[in-house]
UniProtKB/TrEMBL annotation:
Residues 7-59 form the DDE-1 domain. GO terms for molecular function: nucleic acid binding. This is DDE-1 domain-containing protein. InterPro entries: DDE_SF_endonuclease_dom. It comes from the Eukaryota.
Length: 64
């Protein structure tokens, strides 16, 4: 939590794409076990550019 500058009672939201690996029970279980204060929220297909602008703009260079 300290890396996210959260107090002990605060939670974070992680917006990630709906890639099939992200939706696996194994991944979601790992997130809940290791980062119980982070709520994973999936970006609907086709909305990445609107809801994850860094994914389209900044990470585009790395991905392509």
């Amino acid at each position: 939590k300290w890396k996210l500058f959260l107090s002990s009672h605060q939670k974070a939201i992680l917006f990630i794409d709906a890639w099939s690996v992200h939706q696996l029970d194994e991944f979601m279980g790992w997130m809940k076990q290791n980062y119980p204060y982070i709520k994973v929220t999936f970006v609907p297909a086709g909305c990445t550019g609107k809801l994850q602008p860094a994914d389209v703009g900044l990470q585009c260079v790395i991905k392509h």
